[in-house]
Amino acid sequence: MTTYVLTAIGDDRPGLVSALSSVVDDHGGSWVDSSLALLAGKFAGIVLVDVAESRAERFVQELATLAEQVGLRVEATAAAAPSAAPPGSGPSLRLHLLGQDRTGTIREVTSALATVHATIDELRTWTREAPEGGGRLFEAEAQLRLAEGGDADVLRDALETIAAELMVDVEIDDPTES
């Protein structure tokens, strides 16, 4: 079995996921996991699929035809075998950030995360109008994972320091305590 990570992007229209899933199914593949989104009129997705080795080459070739057929550009990357202890195999935390929209917020936050060897399993960001004409707010939610042996308090301290510098509110929750 060959495992691929597929990245797909195209102008949004009905049938894109159907076309992609048909190629997977036509080659006896299994749609294992995915994250799909619509952003600024573009459909984008990342999909994990398993395909029999004997069908892998033809599968990848047929993915390339989706660009012409339905306007969906798909790139297939063979997934590496998981290591015994992947980076970020320690405790999991949830982050919520809210503050005035400004440049550099994500750079500052992700830099702090990298400093304490935390990885981002999932990140969602958006902006919205502040109540009563208070400008634009930036909001982020993330699922974070610390390195094995990582200290959640060190991560909290790093993010609280950044929050004070950026004048944003940061909440960090341990999902196991919910």
From TrEMBL:
Domain of life the protein comes from: Bacteria
GO process terms (BP): regulation of DNA-templated transcription
InterPro entries (UniProt xref): ACT-like_dom_sf, GcvR, UPF0237/GcvR_regulator
Name this protein carries in UniProt: Transcriptional regulator
Organism: Candidatus Brachybacterium merdavium
